[in-house]
Amino acid sequence: MPMLELESVVASYIPGVDILRGVSLRVEQGEIVCLVGPNGAGKSTVLRAISGFLKPTVGQIMFRGKSIGGMAPEQILMEGITHVPQGHSVFPKMTVYENLLMGAFTVKDTALVAQRLERVYSLFSWLKERSREKAGNLSGGQQKVLEIGRALMLEPPLMILDEPSLGLAPKTMASLFETIRELNAGGLTILMVEQNAREGLASAHRGYVLELGKEKFEGTAKELLESPEMAKLYLGGSTDEGSYRRRSKKAVPTIV
Ligand SMILES: Nc1ncnc2c1ncn2[C@@H]1O[C@H](COP(=O)(O)OP(=O)(O)O)[C@@H](O)[C@H]1O
Ligand SMILES: [Mg+2]
Q: What predicted TM-score, i.e. pTM, was given to this entire model?
């Protein structure tokens, strides 16, 4: 059983105007799955449907065998899915420490909160060093790590990340993806949306291309990265001819 499974999900913001038009995808436990596709394809909308901000009108969303489609966002959070949205969502006037505590506002057990805080500090020691600083003073990349740290305060089995690398310089982006891979190696399952498709897929196990509210391709990250069609349409046009020639016969994304 996949950890998360969307089956033919239809959803809209305005009645009658479907943005998701029957999306099916799955995330297995332990995976990093990367969702790519053009602007406006509905990638953020998929994540909003998963975290309960938008209710599917048709289709099913299953999380660890339980139907969560239509549950309230707080309930879905309690089920174990945390959503790190697109853009900046730190509280800039609060300290790093206060921001982290906000991530655990639903946890009443203070000893547990303290324990989780120490775990986040052990993962990112600089957050501890800068715990008393205003979050607004951190760089863009550091704020994103703080947002991820805040989401970790719930020890979620699944984290969904919407364009975590947006606006980051290439070096910062590389280190953020490294952080994401490390968290995954530590057991966190991740579904992320990335506009930087090549970099996002390079850090993922599998990927989906979403277009006009429907998944168009799916495959292992390697398959998607080595597909000439993907390169032409979604990876900024640059191809790696060498790897295309070398690729095995089965390295073709499944058209769905
Ligand atoms: N709150 C909203 N109300 C109405 N339409 C929206 C809203 N948010 C997004 N949309 C529309 O839904 C479509 C998909 O948007 P989105 O999921 O943000 O795309 P992506 O993340 O792939 O760029 C776009 O046409 C967008 O204009
Ligand atoms: Mg988006």
A: 0.90
